[in-house]
Amino acid sequence: MSSFNHAASLFGVTGELAFFGHFTAMALWTGTLMMVGFYSRGPEGWGAFLKWFHPLAVVCVLMVIASGLFLMTGVTPDLVKSWILPYGQALLLKHILILPLLAFAFINGSLMKRRLIRDPQAKPAIWARTEALLLWLIYIVTGYMNQQPAPHAYTDSLAQSDAAATFRWFHPGYQGGAIGWEWSVPGMLLLLCGAGCLAGMILMFAKKNGAGKVLLLGLAAAASLYAGIMFSFA
After folding, report:
1. Residue 135 and residue 121: Cα distance in Å, rounded?
2. pLDDT of res. 200
3. Distance CA 186, CA 206 (A)
4. What secondary structure letter does DSSP report for 150?
5. What single DSSP character describes residue 61?
6. What is the C-alpha to C-alpha distance for residues 20 and 201, in angstroms, rounded to an integer?
7. Phi first, then psi: what are they for 226, rounded to 5°?
8. How far, in Å, are 103, 146, 167 from residue 81 at the CA level?
9. Sign of CA dihedral 230, 144, 107, 61
10. pLDDT at res. 2
């Protein structure tokens, strides 16, 4: 699988190894979480599970981030300019969805271990399943992204693929050319709203709100951050 991706065509063996590490770390982290979340039978054993899984998940997340950044330097050397294209839009959305996912990871790791000590009858599996829903969204976006021309050669990519429809929603008058970061009041307000929603996810868990409500807040955070970024360049 590592031989059939954008990075392998750009970096050769190094790209294959980086993609293999990226994919393997993601599979270990998310696959284990999904299996346990959907097939566990009650809260028994979750404390023992989290003792070894939480450190493993932290290592896997660090590996995913490090390998992802390396791969992105070749596939997307100009990140902001790539947002014009369908590939860049998908990559932006994927990165934004990772933020509420990391909030859920923090909840299901550090915070859930503390809650289980205080309340052995807590239901961590529900929270793991909810985190899995975010993971599936990221998988869907990644699958779409990998079907698009990579923007490592911006001019060629734009020739093969028109500006993304989602990009034109925010910039209907775009006629081509470079774009750059440009602060705007709506953009700043939406970015602040998104940051507040991310913080609110942790607070809602602390106040024992349901996992579904926290997921909705995480999706609201992603939508606000996405719109805030789209309003912040021209």
Report:
1. 26
2. 96
3. 30
4. P
5. H
6. 32
7. -60, -50
8. 28, 18, 11
9. negative
10. 42
**Cβ atoms within 10 Å of 65's Cβ, excluding its own:** 14
Pairwise CA distance, residues 152 & 82, whole Å: 9
Unique residue bearing structure tokens 């998908």: 90
Where do the DSSP E strands lie in 45-177? none
Assign 1 a pLDDT band (cuts: 50, 70, 90). very low
Burial class (CB in 10 A: 0-12, 13-18, 19+), 117: exposed
Q: What are phi and psi of 199, to 5 degrees?
A: -65, -35
Distance in angstroms (rounded) separating the CA atoms of residues 22 and 71: 9
Separation CA 189–CA 203 (nearest Å): 21
Beta bridge partners of 226: none
CA distance 50 to 177: 50
